[in-house]
Design brief:
Blueprint lengths: L2 H29 L1 H14 L1 H27 L8 H53 L4 H35 L1 H27 L1 H15 L2 H47 L4 H11 L6 H14 L3 H27 L7 H15 L1 H28 L8 H6 L2
Helix pairs in contact: 3-4, 3-6, 7-8, 8-9, 8-11, 8-13, 9-10, 10-11, 12-13
Length: 399
């Protein structure tokens, strides 16, 4: 038998063996999915400080790179090496200052809003009862029905307080130690994460150089170049998405603040700053964010009257239409390139796997997967001489 025949038999046997091995691995992975998931969560719990630090460093990487060039140009030649350290300190100080200013503006207004809401609810309920009494004046049947319903509601509230509320309060008191421990755990993870973030920012160029060296040592130059190109595309997608989304949310929050300030002087809108921050921050969440922020904001406006609440809801609908159809696409068109269906699909899919974190990163992650699949389809059609099946835009990009 010829040598080429032996090679062909060997490769076919190896392919069959690998297929069987992958099938066995997949079977056991499905069988032990619960244990794999628990092990994954355990590992993520250990690596939380590193994850926090890595995420913070990645988000601050772009402003650090932007400011370092400007600071380096201002420093004399003998002090240019210090530009990196000065940039990291400046970016961290600005970041903490922005967070402090936001919290200092939001927390007092939030506390005031809670007090107003607590004081206003009994009064609003009394007004509702008086309004219902006036509407039902002369109708004894409906009055009897309403009074029976109210008394039955009071009995249910008393029973709920005895059977559900008190045991729940006892359980909360019993779990107070666990709550305190979890709070300290979050603080510990954040502190360690900030330290890791500083180290990553200071050594970002060194880590990048080392990564490229390992890549070219492990792969051929052509393959290493292709991997670097893919990583550059992934970085561009994530930076473009989060940068554009933050800018988009800041503009939406500013527009909301201007509107609320105008309505404060004309209609008596309350808590313009708090409402604008809620609308702006929740707008960072793709697709569902505007609806999440609109509900508590509308409840806050409802304190000043139902007419104001209706006006605010109409304004939010118009604002989100402007953001979704004009502002958002203009800022994010080059970063993700996904239709509304795929955005909703990616959020639903990654939220099911990773919770809230999946909602935040699902869109750019799926955009990378989608682009990779698109290029595979393009190459496959070109290989089989079916490039004419591609849309005109795809054909132009591949010319």
């Amino acid at each position: 038998m010829k040598k080429e025949d032996w090679k062909q038999i060997f490769y076919k046997s190896l392919t069959g063996f690998m297929s069987l091995a992958m099938a066995i691995v997949l079977f056991f992975a499905i069988q032990g999915f619960g244990q794999i998931r628990e092990s994954f969560h355990w590992l993520m719990g250990i690596l939380k400080p590193v994850i926090y630090g890595g995420v913070m460093a990645y988000l601050l990487k772009t402003p650090c790179n932007f400011l370092e060039k400007r600071i380096e140009a201002l420093l004399p030649q003998k002090h240019k090496k210090r530009a990196n350290g000065l940039t990291v300190v400046l970016v961290l100080v600005l970041t903490f200052l922005i967070i402090y200013l936001l919290l200092s503006m939001v927390i007092p207004e939030m506390a005031e809003s809670i007090l107003i809401l607590v004081n206003a609810v009994p009064k609003k309920l009394d007004e509702l009862a008086e309004w219902m009494t006036g509407m039902l004046d002369g109708n004894t049947v409906l009055q009897t029905y309403v009074n029976t319903a109210i008394s039955g509601m009071e009995d249910k509230l008393q029973n709920w307080a005895k059977t559900d509320l008190l045991p729940a309060m006892q359980g909360m008191m019993g779990g107070f130690a666990n709550t305190v421990g979890s709070v300290f755990g979050v603080i510990y993870n954040l502190v360690i994460g900030i330290i890791i973030c500083i180290y990553l920012l200071l050594g970002r160029k060194t880590f990048a150089r080392q990564g490229r060296a390992v890549l070219y040592a492990a792969f051929k130059s052509e393959r290493a170049d292709a991997i670097l190109k893919e990583l550059s595309f992934i970085d561009k997608t994530f930076v473009g998405f989060f940068g554009g989304k933050i800018l988009d949310s800041a503009i939406v929050g500013l527009i909301c603040y201007v509107f609320c300030m105008i309505m404060t002087f004309t209609m008596g809108f309350p808590n313009a700053m708090l409402i604008s921050v809620i609308v702006g921050v929740t707008n960072v969440i793709p697709y569902f964010g505007p609806y999440i922020g609109a509900v508590p904001s509308a409840l806050l406006v409802l304190i000043s009257g139902p007419v104001n609440c209706v006006i605010f809801i109409v304004f939010i609908i118009v604002l989100q239409q402007f953001d979704g159809n004009i502002l958002g696409p203009a800022l994010l068109a080059d970063s993700v390139g996904l239709t509304g269906f795929w955005v909703l699909f990616s959020i639903t899919l990654f939220q099911g796997f990773f919770g809230f974190a999946g909602i935040l990163v699902g869109v750019p992650v799926f955009a990378v997967i989608y682009d990779f699949a698109r290029r595979l389809v393009v190459k496959g059609l070109e290989k089989h001489g079916k490039a004419g099946m591609l849309p005109e835009k795809e054909q132009e990009e591949n010319v």
